[in-house]
Amino acid sequence: MRLPYSRAFKIPRRFNRRNIESTRGGVFCQDGGMVDLLVVVPHPDDESFGAGGALLLAKASGLRTGILTLTRGEAGRTLGLCSPEDLPQVRLQELRRAAEVLGVDHLEALAFPNALPLEAEGGPRGQAAGRGLAHHPEAREAIRERLLGLRPRFVLTFPPDGINGHPDHVAASRYTLEVAEGLAQVVYFVRPGGPWPVTHRLRLPEWALVRKLKALAQHKTQALSVLNFMEKHPERLWTETFHLPESTGTQEGPWW
Fold it and tell me: How many CA atoms lie within 13 A of 224 on its CB side?
């Protein structure tokens, strides 16, 4: 399935057009109409790490799925595969290929700045501005516009601590929670043993695990992050855990 570029949304005048750009500026949108499940994350590859299996199983259950990525991941590593200047475009291409593997109906990427964590390891990286998503509260309204247009029943995003404390993860979670009230049910992908208890656990069947791994493999510039995740949390590749607010206990299976 090819994901064509399009202009699915009219950009409200109050938005900063440097952050919500045309395709030429590096932002693209495949408009698949309304969705049931929308994943909102700050970086290309977050969708596959945290919710790749959920997207696949939801799609197999007949739900329409979508991904909204808030930055182009320009602070990530290049691994020598491209120049720092070209990294945003390369990461968008990687995201598009991963979305094809995950079979989503809607894909959109915005161009808010990608923050570089203070503890980031060395190595060739893209050109980060220093100030990331947390310094751009206008992203909140961008998310709200998408929720109004796409009408998802569920919005899947990071928990308030961002899982690993990355400031972009934390900001994406905060903005999504603030605007989703009355529009969609927020669900967090969480780590076992973290501050948000696991209410739903998805154990991926073989076919879904294969496709999730293939989606992760599309993010070639971030291969070190993928390998680091596999080394530290291999069980989280085939078991995804989620927190549905106001739910109690742990359910084996989806929340939808």
Answer: 13
